[in-house]
Design goal:
By secondary structure, this protein is of the alpha/beta class. It folds into 2 domains: 147 residues, 3-Layer(bba) Sandwich (FAD/NAD(P)-binding domain); 252 residues, Polyamine Oxidase, Chain A, domain 2 (Alpha-Beta Complex). It is built from 13 helices and 19 strands. Strands 1, 2, 10, 11, 12, 13 and 19 form a 7-stranded mixed sheet that branches. A 7-stranded mixed sheet has the order 8-7-15-16-17-14-18, with helices on both faces. Strands 5-9-6 form a 3-stranded antiparallel sheet. Strand 11 and strand 12 form a beta hairpin. Helix 6 packs across helix 8. The termini are far apart. The N terminus is likely disordered.
Length: 420
Protein backbone atom coordinates (compact mmCIF):
# COMPACT_ATOMS: atom_id res chain seq x y z
CA UNK A 1 0.00 0.00 0.00
CA UNK A 2 1.41 3.37 -1.00
CA UNK A 3 1.85 6.08 1.57
CA UNK A 4 -0.45 9.05 1.08
CA UNK A 5 1.15 12.14 -0.45
CA UNK A 6 1.75 14.48 2.45
CA UNK A 7 2.78 18.02 1.48
CA UNK A 8 6.18 19.02 2.82
CA UNK A 9 5.98 21.72 5.45
CA UNK A 10 9.19 23.70 5.85
CA UNK A 11 10.31 23.99 9.46
CA UNK A 12 9.67 27.23 11.30
CA UNK A 13 11.13 28.61 14.51
CA UNK A 14 11.24 31.84 16.49
CA UNK A 15 14.06 33.58 18.38
CA UNK A 16 14.46 36.90 20.20
CA UNK A 17 17.50 37.86 18.08
CA UNK A 18 18.93 36.37 14.90
CA UNK A 19 22.33 37.52 13.68
CA UNK A 20 23.11 36.92 10.01
CA UNK A 21 26.87 36.53 9.70
CA UNK A 22 29.47 35.28 12.18
CA UNK A 23 32.26 37.64 11.19
CA UNK A 24 33.79 40.17 13.56
CA UNK A 25 30.72 42.44 13.58
CA UNK A 26 28.27 39.61 14.23
CA UNK A 27 30.45 38.09 16.94
CA UNK A 28 30.95 41.45 18.67
CA UNK A 29 27.19 41.94 18.63
CA UNK A 30 26.58 38.45 20.03
CA UNK A 31 29.16 38.82 22.83
CA UNK A 32 27.64 42.14 23.90
CA UNK A 33 24.13 40.65 23.89
CA UNK A 34 25.29 37.63 25.87
CA UNK A 35 26.85 39.86 28.51
CA UNK A 36 23.41 41.46 28.90
CA UNK A 37 21.68 38.09 29.18
CA UNK A 38 20.06 38.17 25.73
CA UNK A 39 20.24 35.02 23.60
CA UNK A 40 20.83 35.12 19.86
CA UNK A 41 20.96 32.61 17.03
CA UNK A 42 23.85 33.08 14.58
CA UNK A 43 23.45 32.06 10.94
CA UNK A 44 26.67 31.77 8.95
CA UNK A 45 26.86 30.96 5.24
CA UNK A 46 30.34 29.37 5.47
CA UNK A 47 31.67 26.55 7.64
CA UNK A 48 33.35 28.64 10.36
CA UNK A 49 33.39 31.96 12.18
CA UNK A 50 35.42 34.96 11.06
CA UNK A 51 33.94 36.25 7.82
CA UNK A 52 36.87 37.74 5.91
CA UNK A 53 39.18 37.29 8.92
CA UNK A 54 40.21 33.64 8.88
CA UNK A 55 43.35 31.53 9.06
CA UNK A 56 43.88 28.07 7.56
CA UNK A 57 46.40 25.42 8.56
CA UNK A 58 48.27 24.22 5.45
CA UNK A 59 51.08 21.66 5.78
CA UNK A 60 52.27 23.24 9.01
CA UNK A 61 51.89 26.83 7.77
CA UNK A 62 49.31 29.35 8.95
CA UNK A 63 47.73 31.13 5.98
CA UNK A 64 45.47 34.09 6.66
CA UNK A 65 42.77 34.71 4.05
CA UNK A 66 44.85 37.38 2.36
CA UNK A 67 47.42 39.56 4.12
CA UNK A 68 45.81 41.22 7.14
CA UNK A 69 46.97 43.07 10.24
CA UNK A 70 45.37 44.76 13.23
CA UNK A 71 46.22 47.99 15.03
CA UNK A 72 46.62 47.56 18.75
CA UNK A 73 45.04 50.77 20.00
CA UNK A 74 41.64 50.24 18.41
CA UNK A 75 39.41 51.13 21.41
CA UNK A 76 36.68 48.53 20.84
CA UNK A 77 39.23 45.81 20.16
CA UNK A 78 40.93 46.64 23.45
CA UNK A 79 37.64 46.21 25.30
CA UNK A 80 36.51 42.99 23.62
CA UNK A 81 39.77 41.10 23.11
CA UNK A 82 42.33 39.57 25.44
CA UNK A 83 45.54 40.80 23.82
CA UNK A 84 47.74 38.70 26.10
CA UNK A 85 45.94 35.51 25.08
CA UNK A 86 46.22 36.47 21.40
CA UNK A 87 49.98 36.83 21.93
CA UNK A 88 50.18 39.74 19.51
CA UNK A 89 53.38 40.04 17.51
CA UNK A 90 54.38 43.49 16.30
CA UNK A 91 55.69 44.77 13.01
CA UNK A 92 58.55 47.27 12.92
CA UNK A 93 57.01 50.78 12.67
CA UNK A 94 58.22 51.67 9.21
CA UNK A 95 58.77 50.17 5.79
CA UNK A 96 61.44 49.12 3.33
CA UNK A 97 60.79 50.98 0.08
CA UNK A 98 61.96 49.79 -3.33
CA UNK A 99 63.09 52.73 -5.42
CA UNK A 100 65.52 52.90 -8.36
CA UNK A 101 66.45 49.22 -7.87
CA UNK A 102 67.51 49.76 -4.26
CA UNK A 103 65.89 49.36 -0.85
CA UNK A 104 65.50 52.32 1.50
CA UNK A 105 64.31 52.24 5.10
CA UNK A 106 61.57 54.68 6.11
CA UNK A 107 61.13 54.60 9.88
CA UNK A 108 58.78 56.17 12.40
CA UNK A 109 60.72 59.22 13.68
CA UNK A 110 58.99 59.10 17.07
CA UNK A 111 59.95 55.52 17.88
CA UNK A 112 63.13 55.09 15.81
CA UNK A 113 64.60 58.60 15.40
CA UNK A 114 68.06 57.36 14.41
CA UNK A 115 66.70 55.16 11.63
CA UNK A 116 64.44 58.00 10.49
CA UNK A 117 67.39 60.42 10.37
CA UNK A 118 69.30 58.04 8.10
CA UNK A 119 66.39 58.09 5.67
CA UNK A 120 66.19 61.87 5.38
CA UNK A 121 68.10 61.97 2.11
CA UNK A 122 66.73 58.79 0.55
CA UNK A 123 65.15 59.46 -2.89
CA UNK A 124 61.60 58.83 -1.72
CA UNK A 125 60.53 62.43 -1.26
CA UNK A 126 61.88 65.87 -0.53
CA UNK A 127 63.33 66.81 2.84
CA UNK A 128 60.25 68.97 3.38
CA UNK A 129 58.03 65.95 2.68
CA UNK A 130 59.78 63.87 5.31
CA UNK A 131 59.66 66.62 7.90
CA UNK A 132 55.96 67.07 7.15
CA UNK A 133 55.36 63.33 7.64
CA UNK A 134 57.24 63.47 10.95
CA UNK A 135 55.30 66.52 12.13
CA UNK A 136 51.94 65.03 11.21
CA UNK A 137 52.85 61.76 12.87
CA UNK A 138 53.31 63.69 16.09
CA UNK A 139 50.50 66.22 15.74
CA UNK A 140 47.94 64.18 13.83
CA UNK A 141 46.62 64.01 10.28
CA UNK A 142 43.68 66.29 9.50
CA UNK A 143 43.69 66.48 5.72
CA UNK A 144 39.87 66.46 5.76
CA UNK A 145 40.19 70.17 6.52
CA UNK A 146 40.82 70.66 2.81
CA UNK A 147 37.36 69.21 2.09
CA UNK A 148 35.68 66.02 3.29
CA UNK A 149 34.62 65.19 -0.27
CA UNK A 150 38.22 65.04 -1.51
CA UNK A 151 39.97 61.85 -2.49
CA UNK A 152 43.16 60.83 -0.73
CA UNK A 153 45.23 61.90 -3.75
CA UNK A 154 43.54 65.30 -3.94
CA UNK A 155 44.03 65.88 -0.21
CA UNK A 156 47.72 64.93 -0.25
CA UNK A 157 48.32 67.38 -3.09
CA UNK A 158 46.28 70.09 -1.38
CA UNK A 159 48.41 69.65 1.74
CA UNK A 160 51.62 70.25 -0.20
CA UNK A 161 53.10 66.78 -0.48
CA UNK A 162 55.25 66.30 -3.57
CA UNK A 163 54.45 63.85 -6.35
CA UNK A 164 57.61 61.96 -5.46
CA UNK A 165 56.59 61.08 -1.91
CA UNK A 166 53.03 60.39 -3.05
CA UNK A 167 54.33 57.88 -5.61
CA UNK A 168 57.14 56.46 -3.46
CA UNK A 169 55.42 56.19 -0.08
CA UNK A 170 51.72 57.04 0.07
CA UNK A 171 50.72 55.21 -3.11
CA UNK A 172 52.24 51.81 -2.21
CA UNK A 173 51.53 52.10 1.53
CA UNK A 174 47.98 53.43 1.41
CA UNK A 175 47.40 51.38 -1.73
CA UNK A 176 48.04 48.30 0.37
CA UNK A 177 45.60 49.48 3.03
CA UNK A 178 42.90 50.64 0.61
CA UNK A 179 43.57 47.86 -1.94
CA UNK A 180 43.77 50.48 -4.71
CA UNK A 181 46.69 52.59 -5.95
CA UNK A 182 44.75 55.40 -7.61
CA UNK A 183 44.18 56.81 -4.10
CA UNK A 184 40.57 57.55 -4.97
CA UNK A 185 39.53 56.53 -1.44
CA UNK A 186 38.02 59.26 0.75
CA UNK A 187 40.34 61.60 2.64
CA UNK A 188 38.42 60.62 5.78
CA UNK A 189 39.92 57.16 5.57
CA UNK A 190 43.36 58.67 4.93
CA UNK A 191 43.13 60.58 8.22
CA UNK A 192 41.86 57.53 10.10
CA UNK A 193 44.57 55.23 8.75
CA UNK A 194 47.53 57.57 9.09
CA UNK A 195 46.61 58.67 12.61
CA UNK A 196 46.41 55.06 13.76
CA UNK A 197 49.54 53.88 11.97
CA UNK A 198 51.52 56.91 13.20
CA UNK A 199 50.68 56.33 16.85
CA UNK A 200 50.07 52.63 17.14
CA UNK A 201 51.68 49.24 16.81
CA UNK A 202 50.68 47.03 13.90
CA UNK A 203 50.43 43.38 14.85
CA UNK A 204 49.11 39.91 14.14
CA UNK A 205 48.15 37.23 16.67
CA UNK A 206 50.96 34.70 16.99
CA UNK A 207 48.81 31.94 15.49
CA UNK A 208 47.13 33.98 12.78
CA UNK A 209 44.39 36.54 12.35
CA UNK A 210 41.75 33.83 12.69
CA UNK A 211 42.47 33.77 16.42
CA UNK A 212 40.53 37.04 16.76
CA UNK A 213 37.11 35.64 15.77
CA UNK A 214 37.87 32.35 17.49
CA UNK A 215 38.49 34.16 20.76
CA UNK A 216 35.23 36.09 20.42
CA UNK A 217 33.32 32.88 19.64
CA UNK A 218 34.80 31.21 22.73
CA UNK A 219 32.74 33.63 24.86
CA UNK A 220 29.50 32.35 23.32
CA UNK A 221 29.15 28.99 25.06
CA UNK A 222 25.52 27.93 24.86
CA UNK A 223 24.82 30.07 21.82
CA UNK A 224 23.55 28.27 18.74
CA UNK A 225 25.61 28.62 15.57
CA UNK A 226 24.27 27.27 12.30
CA UNK A 227 27.01 27.03 9.69
CA UNK A 228 26.62 26.53 5.94
CA UNK A 229 23.28 28.29 6.31
CA UNK A 230 22.83 31.13 3.83
CA UNK A 231 19.87 33.46 4.25
CA UNK A 232 17.94 33.90 1.01
CA UNK A 233 15.67 36.78 2.00
CA UNK A 234 14.22 38.82 4.84
CA UNK A 235 10.55 39.78 4.79
CA UNK A 236 9.40 41.77 7.79
CA UNK A 237 10.68 39.84 10.82
CA UNK A 238 11.01 36.56 8.94
CA UNK A 239 14.19 35.11 7.48
CA UNK A 240 13.99 32.51 4.71
CA UNK A 241 16.79 29.96 4.31
CA UNK A 242 17.90 28.14 1.18
CA UNK A 243 16.01 24.95 2.11
CA UNK A 244 12.77 26.85 2.61
CA UNK A 245 12.97 26.98 6.40
CA UNK A 246 11.72 30.22 7.93
CA UNK A 247 12.85 31.81 11.16
CA UNK A 248 11.11 34.66 12.94
CA UNK A 249 12.94 37.09 15.19
CA UNK A 250 12.00 40.10 17.25
CA UNK A 251 15.30 41.66 16.16
CA UNK A 252 17.27 40.77 13.03
CA UNK A 253 20.91 41.83 12.75
CA UNK A 254 22.50 41.82 9.30
CA UNK A 255 26.22 41.43 10.02
CA UNK A 256 27.41 40.60 6.52
CA UNK A 257 29.58 42.47 4.06
CA UNK A 258 28.11 45.44 2.19
CA UNK A 259 27.19 43.36 -0.86
CA UNK A 260 25.11 40.82 1.07
CA UNK A 261 23.60 43.51 3.31
CA UNK A 262 22.34 45.43 0.27
CA UNK A 263 20.84 42.23 -1.13
CA UNK A 264 19.05 41.30 2.10
CA UNK A 265 17.77 44.85 2.56
CA UNK A 266 16.66 44.85 -1.10
CA UNK A 267 18.47 48.10 -1.80
CA UNK A 268 17.77 49.47 -5.30
CA UNK A 269 20.57 50.17 -7.73
CA UNK A 270 23.88 48.44 -8.40
CA UNK A 271 25.53 46.47 -5.58
CA UNK A 272 28.20 48.22 -3.48
CA UNK A 273 31.66 48.26 -5.04
CA UNK A 274 34.63 46.43 -3.56
CA UNK A 275 38.36 46.35 -4.11
CA UNK A 276 39.95 42.96 -4.65
CA UNK A 277 43.39 41.65 -3.76
CA UNK A 278 45.59 38.65 -4.46
CA UNK A 279 48.00 37.17 -1.94
CA UNK A 280 50.59 34.60 -2.99
CA UNK A 281 52.01 32.60 -0.09
CA UNK A 282 55.48 31.06 -0.51
CA UNK A 283 57.39 28.67 1.73
CA UNK A 284 61.07 29.58 1.92
CA UNK A 285 64.21 28.09 3.44
CA UNK A 286 65.93 31.50 3.38
CA UNK A 287 64.68 35.09 3.55
CA UNK A 288 66.51 38.35 2.76
CA UNK A 289 66.07 39.85 6.23
CA UNK A 290 64.93 38.92 9.74
CA UNK A 291 63.41 42.34 10.44
CA UNK A 292 59.59 42.23 10.96
CA UNK A 293 58.88 44.99 8.47
CA UNK A 294 56.64 45.68 5.48
CA UNK A 295 58.28 45.87 2.04
CA UNK A 296 56.74 48.38 -0.41
CA UNK A 297 57.17 48.63 -4.17
CA UNK A 298 57.64 52.27 -5.24
CA UNK A 299 58.71 51.33 -8.76
CA UNK A 300 56.28 51.50 -11.70
CA UNK A 301 56.82 47.89 -12.75
CA UNK A 302 55.94 44.47 -11.38
CA UNK A 303 52.74 43.05 -9.90
CA UNK A 304 53.77 43.06 -6.22
CA UNK A 305 52.63 46.12 -4.27
CA UNK A 306 53.73 45.01 -0.81
CA UNK A 307 55.35 42.02 0.80
CA UNK A 308 55.65 40.64 4.32
CA UNK A 309 57.96 37.99 5.73
CA UNK A 310 55.36 36.63 8.14
CA UNK A 311 57.72 34.40 10.13
CA UNK A 312 59.82 37.44 10.97
CA UNK A 313 56.76 38.68 12.86
CA UNK A 314 55.63 35.34 14.33
CA UNK A 315 57.56 32.07 14.13
CA UNK A 316 54.29 30.16 14.44
CA UNK A 317 53.33 30.99 10.84
CA UNK A 318 55.65 28.22 9.56
CA UNK A 319 57.17 24.92 10.73
CA UNK A 320 60.58 25.09 12.46
CA UNK A 321 63.37 25.97 10.05
CA UNK A 322 61.06 27.36 7.38
CA UNK A 323 59.67 30.79 6.52
CA UNK A 324 56.40 32.15 5.14
CA UNK A 325 56.40 34.96 2.58
CA UNK A 326 53.23 36.87 1.64
CA UNK A 327 53.43 38.73 -1.70
CA UNK A 328 50.44 40.98 -2.32
CA UNK A 329 48.99 42.15 -5.64
CA UNK A 330 46.31 44.85 -5.74
CA UNK A 331 46.31 46.01 -9.38
CA UNK A 332 43.13 44.50 -10.91
CA UNK A 333 44.86 44.02 -14.28
CA UNK A 334 46.60 40.98 -12.78
CA UNK A 335 43.44 39.28 -11.50
CA UNK A 336 43.09 37.06 -14.58
CA UNK A 337 46.74 36.95 -15.64
CA UNK A 338 47.59 33.27 -16.35
CA UNK A 339 51.30 33.92 -15.74
CA UNK A 340 50.89 35.88 -12.50
CA UNK A 341 53.02 33.47 -10.46
CA UNK A 342 55.82 33.70 -13.04
CA UNK A 343 55.68 37.52 -12.99
CA UNK A 344 55.75 37.56 -9.19
CA UNK A 345 58.71 35.18 -9.12
CA UNK A 346 60.61 37.34 -11.60
CA UNK A 347 60.02 40.40 -9.43
CA UNK A 348 61.13 38.51 -6.31
CA UNK A 349 64.36 37.45 -8.05
CA UNK A 350 65.06 41.05 -9.06
CA UNK A 351 64.51 42.16 -5.48
CA UNK A 352 66.24 39.45 -3.47
CA UNK A 353 68.33 37.36 -5.85
CA UNK A 354 68.98 33.63 -5.93
CA UNK A 355 67.61 32.84 -2.47
CA UNK A 356 64.13 33.06 -3.99
CA UNK A 357 64.76 30.26 -6.51
CA UNK A 358 63.66 27.53 -4.07
CA UNK A 359 60.61 29.39 -2.78
CA UNK A 360 57.56 27.16 -3.28
CA UNK A 361 54.07 28.52 -3.86
CA UNK A 362 51.74 27.25 -1.13
CA UNK A 363 48.54 29.01 -2.13
CA UNK A 364 47.19 31.92 -4.12
CA UNK A 365 44.30 33.74 -2.44
CA UNK A 366 42.14 35.87 -4.72
CA UNK A 367 39.88 37.90 -2.42
CA UNK A 368 37.23 39.30 -4.76
CA UNK A 369 35.57 41.42 -2.06
CA UNK A 370 38.57 42.29 0.10
CA UNK A 371 37.41 45.71 1.28
CA UNK A 372 34.57 48.11 0.45
CA UNK A 373 35.39 50.84 -2.05
CA UNK A 374 34.97 54.06 -0.08
CA UNK A 375 35.35 57.06 -2.35
CA UNK A 376 32.80 58.70 -0.06
CA UNK A 377 31.96 57.73 3.52
CA UNK A 378 28.45 58.51 4.63
CA UNK A 379 26.70 58.32 7.98
CA UNK A 380 26.20 54.91 9.53
CA UNK A 381 22.73 53.40 9.06
CA UNK A 382 22.58 50.88 11.90
CA UNK A 383 18.77 50.66 12.05
CA UNK A 384 17.52 50.69 8.43
CA UNK A 385 13.98 49.65 9.31
CA UNK A 386 11.95 48.62 12.38
CA UNK A 387 13.23 45.39 13.88
CA UNK A 388 16.15 45.15 11.46
CA UNK A 389 19.69 46.32 12.22
CA UNK A 390 22.96 46.18 10.33
CA UNK A 391 26.61 46.34 11.34
CA UNK A 392 29.96 45.79 9.69
CA UNK A 393 33.02 47.54 8.32
CA UNK A 394 30.90 49.22 5.63
CA UNK A 395 29.14 51.30 8.32
CA UNK A 396 32.07 53.69 8.71
CA UNK A 397 35.74 53.75 7.77
CA UNK A 398 36.26 50.12 6.72
CA UNK A 399 38.42 48.52 9.40
CA UNK A 400 38.44 45.88 12.12
CA UNK A 401 37.57 48.63 14.59
CA UNK A 402 34.46 49.68 12.66
CA UNK A 403 33.29 46.07 12.36
CA UNK A 404 33.66 45.51 16.11
CA UNK A 405 32.32 48.91 17.16
CA UNK A 406 29.18 48.78 15.03
CA UNK A 407 28.48 45.26 16.27
CA UNK A 408 28.58 46.56 19.84
CA UNK A 409 26.47 49.61 18.98
CA UNK A 410 23.73 47.49 17.41
CA UNK A 411 23.70 45.19 20.43
CA UNK A 412 23.35 48.20 22.72
CA UNK A 413 20.30 49.36 20.75
CA UNK A 414 18.70 45.94 21.08
CA UNK A 415 19.48 45.85 24.81
CA UNK A 416 17.95 49.30 25.25
CA UNK A 417 14.88 48.17 23.33
CA UNK A 418 14.48 45.05 25.50
CA UNK A 419 14.77 47.11 28.68
CA UNK A 420 12.19 49.69 27.63
Amino acid sequence: MKSPNVPHVAPHSSHPVVIVGAGLAGLACAVTLRNAGIHALLLESTDSVGGRVKTDWHDGFLLDHGFQVMLMNYPTAQKLLDYEALDLKRFYPGAMIRRQKKWYLMADPQRYPLDATRALFAPIGTLTDKLRVAFKGRGGYDLSKHGEQLSTLEALRADGFSERIIDCFFRPFLGGVFQEKDLSTSVQKLDFVMNHFSNDDTAVPAKGMGEIPRQLASHLAGYQFRFNTPVISIEGQCLRLADGETIEAESIVIATDAHQAARLLQRPGPPPAFHSSICLYFRASQVPSRRPILWLNAEPTGPINHLALMTNVSNDYAPPGEHLVAANVIDPQYAQAPDLEEQVRQQLREWFGEITLDWKLLRKDHIARAIPAQNQIGEADLHPRPGVYQCGDHQGVASIETALATGVQVAQRIIQKSNS
